Amino acid sequence: MRLLIQECLQGKVVIDGKTVGEIGRGEVVLVGFTTGDDEKIIDRMIDKLLKLRIFADENGKTNLSLADIDGKLLLVSQFTLYADLSSGNRPSFVKALPGSQSEPLFGLFAKKMDERMPGKIEKGVFGADMKVHLINDGPFTVLLDSKELWG
């Protein structure tokens, strides 16, 4: 599982001209799944995500978490986080979990996030042609990869 976390001042997802999810200050999180991802990995990634201290304190140090700033999350499914560019110029997505398997995992991830942060979660629509608008703060972007964190 990979999470690309972007600190934002504002984020929204638009589908066919209609806004389906929108937040102010917080994080836009792109979410991708691969073989072996399951509920246990989702739980660990949620714990790590919620404990990240990536927001600046009064001294400009990254000491504050999402909860500390009363921030929100915008979750967007993103299979391209598993693009393989090791050969040729066209990305391969064989490492990305197929939609039929990743859609329920994305749903579970969003549900568990909402349980942990009620009323603070917005999301895109799985598999839709989404236009993601983002005012990245900093910019500050980090990648969490479950395989790099826990093997």
Structural class based on helices, strands and sheet pairing = alpha/beta
How helix-rich are the residues, as a percent range? Answer: 10-25%
- Largest sheet geometry: 6 strands, mixed
Distance between the termini: 11 Å
Summed over residues and divided by their number, the pLDDT gives a mean of 96
Number of strands: 8
Overall 3D geometry?
globular
Number of helices: 3
Task: Explain what you see.
This protein is an alpha/beta fold. The protein contains 3 helices and 8 strands. It has helices at 39-51, 99-116, 146-150; strands at residues 2-15, 18-23, 26-32, 55-56, 62-64, 72-77, 121-123, 131-145. The strands form 2 sheets. Strands 1, 2, 3, 6, 7 and 8 form a 6-stranded mixed β-sheet that branches. Strands 4-5 form a two-stranded antiparallel ribbon. α1 (39-51) crosses α2.
Brief overview, please?
This protein has three helices and eight strands.
Task: Describe the structure using short key phrases.
two-stranded antiparallel ribbon, 8 strands, alpha/beta, 151 residues, single chain, six-stranded mixed β-sheet
Please describe the topology of this protein.
Elements (H helix, E strand, L loop, with lengths): L1 E14 L2 E6 L2 E7 L6 H13 L3 E2 L5 E3 L7 E6 L21 H18 L4 E3 L7 E15 H5 L1
Parallel strand pairs: 3-6, 6-7
Antiparallel strand pairs: 1-2, 1-3, 1-8, 4-5
Helix pairs in contact: 1-2
